[in-house]
Specification:
By secondary structure, this protein is an alpha+beta fold. The protein has 19 helices and 23 strands.
Length: 668
């Protein structure tokens, strides 16, 4: 079967750019604990797992490595030395120093200072102040499995049935009609708005009592809160350099709508005091600082819990999911931000997001506060972030989860498999814990493009595919090769670029489909199209704006689901947000602009008391006739505002011609 991947034949596709965009294994954090967590994935722990020795062959007295025969053993051309000599299995003294298998006879002993060589002596290797001591334990034993080729048949594990807890799709009443405001209130409902208003009013009273900025404050109501949100969404669609510029007057850049909803000072004062948690409870939480009971995300917890519960309640995902990181940009030094070099947004708050790869709907997310208590002990943050998002009884079983190289690990995939959840993800280094370290039958320099190597360690499948570079992927839901192909542009021996069909593993195709073509990338992109994010002095307000983006984006995706079910044409993303903005502000999008009463009306040139004299006495020469036709015609009419005489008769309307093209004042 030949499958054409979604790759433009006219443009060379580089997997380096695609997979490097999802490679987040090198992440720096402001907290030492996140740095330690990433090292736990790359370095070996001080205690070697028992499972690592199960996959390794015990060493024998003659120091020979036992293995099962493979079809490539009898083919000398398969693996040769630089002198085309077959490789033997005998371990040389040099290899003996590199192997880490421990036999029962070779009990590890604690070395003494005298037994160490000068290069191993602690006195020759001073440790820098504040640096962490590196583990002295050996790496996990390298697997002695041989990489198989695409010609060797792989047996796909029996797939487990897909049993979602609820029917996939929206969980709304299909017979009802939902406006954009109705869908938005599913995530920020009236009770949540009331809580926000109460906490904001308390925060304003606290700030006024403590001094500082002097301003007048009146308690905010729910209606005013929704108007504030409406203006916030309006500013995302009509971008200006500063928020206050939306209230500029008497310029061609003046905005007419914001002043009709709220004054500039009122919007600014609400922004200063918007608060998601109770200020009194904030003070109690601050007293616990430095203790395990201290909650670093206490200020955002009320709205965070409300939105995450709504995300899971009103939509159930399809079979393919995706877990990835998202960075909310900020330069605030709060101790909660992270530096991620591999992401387009380098510095900001780090979120772990679970999304439906079919449409980008955000199902669940967590905010990483910089310091976490690992539930799994030494498994690390990458493991815990995926397990916490997918280990939900509401979800069901049989789902497929796609992750990037930061989260991929054999332990994670095996534990997900025990939960009846398949997993697929890339990995960048074979030296990481648990991955096969086999060097037999790997790629050589002359391997053609499209070459496939694989190892099956049930339920894990490790696949290496050679495109413009080597691509490594691990999966529990795919077969090594099933005959799929893709198109690539390559240069032939004559130097001419031409399309060429090369084979491709199904794991790579599905990874590109559910991550490159959708998933969190799509979810993040949708939320960034018309984001309400702007610079602020407070870290909790930065996340407040991002929560609004998630609520608005999910509302739009629910709107699309409802319209698709009813076979109706959905609104565009921009049209949906415009309608949401208008409904939050209590107006309609198509508001007819009323024209102000004008003084340009015809009046008599002179006031005559006698009716017989009104048509002949007091007549003046028409200004328009004199300028355009160079003719003098008298008229009894003039413009009240312009104070010029103008003809106004059935066959000659100089009054209308005179006022054509004049600028009128418009407004309400």
């Amino acid at each position: 079967m030949e499958v054409d991947a979604e790759v433009d034949v006219g443009v060379e596709t580089h997997w380096d750019d695609f997979f490097d965009a999802h490679d987040d294994s090198e992440t720096s954090s402001e907290s030492d604990e996140s740095l330690l967590n990433e090292r736990e994935w790359e370095d070996e722990s001080s205690e070697t797992d028992e499972d690592d020795f199960d996959s390794a062959e015990p060493s024998t007295p003659d120091r020979k490595r036992a293995r099962s025969p493979s079809p490539s053993d009898n083919d000398p051309a398969t693996i040769t030395t630089p002198k085309d000599e077959p490789i033997t299995d005998t371990i040389t003294p040099k290899d003996e120093t590199e192997t880490h298998s421990i036999s029962p006879k070779d009990e590890p002993t604690t070395p003494t200072i005298a037994s160490l060589t000068p290069s191993q002596s602690c006195s020759k290797r001073p440790r820098l102040c504040g640096s962490r001591p590196r583990s002295k334990s050996p790496h996990a034993a390298a697997s002695n499995s041989t990489w198989n080729t695409e010609k060797e048949q792989d047996v796909l594990p029996t797939p487990k049935g897909f049993r979602p807890a609820r029917p996939p799709g929206h969980q709304l009443n299909p017979s009802s009609t939902y406006t954009p405001l109705d869908l938005f209130k599913l995530f920020i409902h009236d009770d949540s708005a009331m809580t926000l208003c109460m906490n904001t009013n308390k925060q304003a009273a606290k700030n006024i009592a403590n001094g500082g900025k002097k301003y007048t404050w009146t308690n905010m109501t729910i209606k005013e809160f929704y108007s504030y949100l409406g203006l916030t969404f309006f500013f995302s669609g009509v971008r200006l350099s500063r928020i206050r510029d939306h209230w500029r007057k008497n310029t061609i850049f003046s905005q007419l709508f914001p002043p009709t909803v709220m004054s500039r000072d009122r919007y600014q004062v609400i922004s200063w005091n918007i608060h998601m948690s109770d200020p009194g409870e904030d003070a109690e939480n601050e007293k616990l600082k430095g203790t395990p009971a201290y909650d670093r995300l206490f200020r955002i917890k009320p709205l965070l819990n409300t939105i995450t519960q709504a995300c899971k309640a009103f939509y159930h995902p399809c079979k393919n999911l995706y877990v990835d990181e998202r960075t909310v940009a900020t330069k605030a030094h709060t101790g909660k931000t992270q530096n991620t070099k591999a992401k387009p947004t380098k510095c900001g708050f780090r979120l772990f997001v679970l999304a439906d790869s079919s449409n980008g709907y955000t199902l669940d997310f967590t905010v990483y506060a910089g310091k976490s208590k690992f539930v799994s002990g030494s498994a690390g943050l990458a493991y815990d972030s995926v397990m916490s998002l997918t280990k939900d009884a509401q979800l069901g079983s049989g789902y497929h989860v796609y992750v990037d190289s930061y989260h991929t690990s054999p332990k994670l995939f095996k534990d997900l498999h025990t939960l009846n959840i398949g997993a697929c993800g890339t990995y960048s280094r074979d030296t990481r814990k648990g991955f096969p370290h086999a060097a037999k039958n790997t790629f050589n320099k002359k391997a053609p493009r499209g070459t496939i190597k694989w190892i099956r360690e049930d339920p894990l499948l490790y696949v290496k595919w050679l495109d413009t570079r080597e691509v490594s992927i691990c999966s529990t839901i795919h077969q090594a090769f099933n005959g799929d192909t893709i198109q690539r542009r390559v240069k032939n021996v004559e130097g001419v670029w031409a399309a060429q069909t090369i084979q491709c593993p199904p794991a790579v195709l599905d990874y590109h489909k559910h991550i490159g073509g959708g998933g969190v990338d799509l979810s993040d992109t949708l939320s960034q199209y018309y984001s309400v994010h702007h610079r602020t002095m407070r870290w909790d307000r930065t996340l407040f704006f991002h929560f609004l983006d998630i609520a608005a984006t999910n509302s739009y995706l629910l709107h699309k689901e409802l319209c698709t079910e009813k076979q109706e044409q959905p609104m565009t993303h921009r049209a949906f947000l415009e309608e949401l903005t208008a409904q939050l502000c209590g107006v309609t999008v198509d508001v007819p602009v009323a024209r102000k009463q004008s003084d340009h009306v015809p009046v008599p040139t002179s006031m005559q008391a006698e009716t017989t004299k009104r048509a002949s006495y007091g007549r003046k020469s028409c200004v328009h006739c004199r300028k355009t036709e160079k003719t003098s015609r008298s008229t009894p009419w003039k413009c009240k505002s312009c104070d010029v005489a103008l003809c106004l008769i059935a066959d000659r309307n100089c009054f209308e011609e005179w006022h054509k093209g004049m600028v009128y004042e418009w407004g309400e």
